[in-house]
Design goal:
Residues 181-459 form the MYST-type HAT domain. The chain contains 11 helices and 19 strands. The protein is of the alpha+beta class and 468 residues long. It binds zinc ion.
């Protein structure tokens, strides 16, 4: 039975799963919740006669994409893909769809567990910014694709052809490749004592894909097919910390600086691991122009990777961070802020302001917004009046100099916090009791801080060198 709707011309009532194709949109039961948000079918496959569907929830981050069975699909209202639509464009431009079966509206489904909606820091406008950012993220990034990133024991060019990753050509990305890179391909990783379920696609070699688990050496980041293989590796691997120079140590926290040219294999394996949790369209397999700052926690077994950020040796646009990631087992413990704080500490040593490369991930944006707010409020609250009965004065430029936060980020933060007022011909910043209380409360949770005295580092002028 096929019923044409008047206002939604390409929607059909359909009671059969057999008519479902890739690109169809319909309400899908999201695992672990009681919600049925609108989702797009990205891929369909046959598992011994059982059809399974890879779905993307239209208004949610891709990390929630998952395989579901027919029972999770509400086939009473299916929105079929338009024949003339370009493939793969559905995600970035969701159309309004009327959905039956008690689901109110495509844009209004909220999920309690969503990290964006549960964040209650003293910021506003996040939703708007996050939405704007999502648009940016959906745009393709420029730069070479991750050709040959799959080789871990030698230069990419020697192995890439044999291992057959999905993005070998590096130039044109076919529709098929686009679908492949939209889907998570690694079931599970084990790194050190942690077992972690990846969030996104990463171009590990074909033979590693669809294993129940990939085993990663937590020190050199090489990957193995089985625990046995990793155990064999660990006998030979004598690294107990990332390669490169330890440039910071305070209590059990250390930072190592790794040159992407000198430690290419490590840098590539780090990028590959990071890609599992970063939704970037492409990665730079050419790690030469980057430095990698890896943060570790120390115990009797060694220095364990917590997170990292990469940084261009030379940035024409004052970027002080390219990619930044806290590994999931260490998230929500203040380490993300510590990474950000460290990146600005390096900028202070360089005597310049910096900003992270855009687009930021949704979680990255939240961390940065919160870091900027806390750092700027800290400066404002410590500003002393010049004379008695005077108000403290500080210029935007002074805030930039003290924090190394780029001017546009300082201004947008002050605006987001609603602190700027115009009064009797000049701009004044008013800090309400409420803002101050919220600030001190937030700062109580930031127990670990970067201590500039523990940083032993001299910036290099990479521009003066003929080659990296
Ligand atoms: Zn190793």
């Amino acid at each position: 039975m096929k019923v044409e709707m008047e206002d939604v011309d390409d929607s059909t009532l359909c009671d059969s799963v057999s008519s479902l194709v890739e690109g169809c949109r319909l309400p899908v039961h999201m695992k672990g919740t009681s919600d049925w948000p609108l989702a797009e079918i990205v891929s369909i496959k046959d598992l011994d006669g059982l059809k399974v569907y890879y779905v993307h929830y239209v208004d949610f981050n891709k990390r929630l994409d998952e395989w579901v069975t027919e029972q999770s699909l509400d086939t009473r209202k299916v929105h079929f893909p338009r024949k003339d639509a370009a493939p793969g464009t559905g995600v970035s431009t969701p159309k309004k769809v009327q959905i039956g079966s008690g689901i109110s509206n495509s844009g209004q489904v909220s999920r309690p567990a969503s990290p964006v909606s549960t964040n209650s820091e003293l910021l506003n406008g996040n939703a708007v910014l996050a939405a704007a950012l999502q648009k940016k993220i959906n745009r393709k990034r420029k730069g070479p694709s991750l050709e040959g990133e799959d080789s871990q024991d030698g230069p990419p060019s020697q192995q890439s052809a044999a291992t057959g990753g999905p993005r070998q050509s590096g130039s044109m990305v076919s529709h098929h490749d686009d679908i492949v890179t939209r889907m998570k391909n690694i079931e599970m990783i084990e790194i050190g004592p942690h077992r972690v379920r990846p969030w996104y696609f990463a171009p590990y070699p074909q033979e590693m894909v669809h294993l129940a688990c990939i085993y990663i050496c937590e020190f050199c980041l090489k990957y193995r097919k089985s625990r046995k293989c990793l155990e064999r590796h660990l006998i030979k691997c004598n690294l107990r910390h990332p390669p490169g120079n330890e440039i910071y140590r305070k209590d059990n926290i250390s930072f190592f600086e790794i040159d992407g040219r000198k430690n290419k294999v490590y840098a590539q394996n780090l990028c590959l691991l990071a890609k599992l949790f970063l939704d970037h369209k492409t990665l730079y397999y050419d790690t030469d122009p980057f430095l990698f700052y890896v943060m570790t926690v120390f115990d009797h077994r060694g220095f364990h990777i917590v997170g990292y950020f990469s940084k261009e040796k030379e940035s024409t646009e004052d970027y002080n961070v390219a990619c930044i990631l806290t590994l999931p087992p260490y998230q929500r413990k203040g380490y993300g802020k510590l990474l950000i704080e460290f990146s600005y500490e390096l900028s202070k040593f360089e005597g310049k302001t910096g900003s992270p490369e855009k687009p930021l991930s949704d979680l990255g944006l939240l961390s940065y917004r919160s870091y900027w707010a806390q750092t700027i409020l800290e400066i404002l609250l410590s500003a002393k009046p010049i004379g008695e009965n005077e108000k403290a004065q500080i210029t935007i430029n002074e805030i930039c100099e003290l924090t190394s936060i780029k001017k546009e980020d300082v201004i947008s933060t002050l605006q987001n916090l609603n602190l700027i007022n115009y009064y009797k011909g000049q701009y004044i910043i008013t800090l309400s009791k409420e803002i101050i209380q919220q600030h001190y409360k937030a700062m109580e949770t930031r127990q670990i801080r970067i201590d500039s005295k523990a940083l032993h580092w001299t910036p290099k002028d990479w521009g003066k060198r003929a080659k990296w």
